Amino acid sequence: MTTPVLPSPCSKRLGLLDSSALAQAVDARVAEAWQLCREVHPDLPRPGVWLDLRGAGAGQANMKRGGLRFNRLLLEDNRLAFFEEVIPHEMAHWLVFHLENGPRLKPHGHEWKTVMRELFGLVPRVTHRFDTQRVRLTPFRYRCGCREHALTRRRHTFVLQGGCYRCRFCAETLVYHAEDGSEGRI
Ligand SMILES: [Zn+2]
Ligand SMILES: [Zn+2]
Question: Any idea where the SprT-like domain is (predicted)?
């Protein structure tokens, strides 16, 4: 049996947050998880936090960027699970990355599992069971001059047949960039 070490967030309160308050709450939860990690690794740098991960992945620890990325759509629909599991999961990656031989360790290997169990008091799971329908409905990523857009298959087909969409913010034509994967990894 494991008992979560971080305090349990109130599901009802989380459900009421608008998107900017939710983003702030994610920052605060990351800080909480980071403080816990600093008990075993006092020099651990504080990670940046971004809600720009796309596709079916819930989160990602990204060394190059220097922080943690989370999937905003999945976060909005699965708030409690993000606070209880996904944020500690990515913070555990962040901690393991910063161990002496961290970059050479397996992402979900022994060290990561130990951090999840012993430090966070969580079961070390590698996949999530979130409903990714909203993500799957718009898997086609397009770019303009100012941001990324997610299009449905119907709209993507329209573009392939010579159609064209413009960004309503910068008015540039949307250019196809990539299709999101459908794996539900954390
Ligand atoms: Zn634009
Ligand atoms: Zn992971």
Answer: 24-177
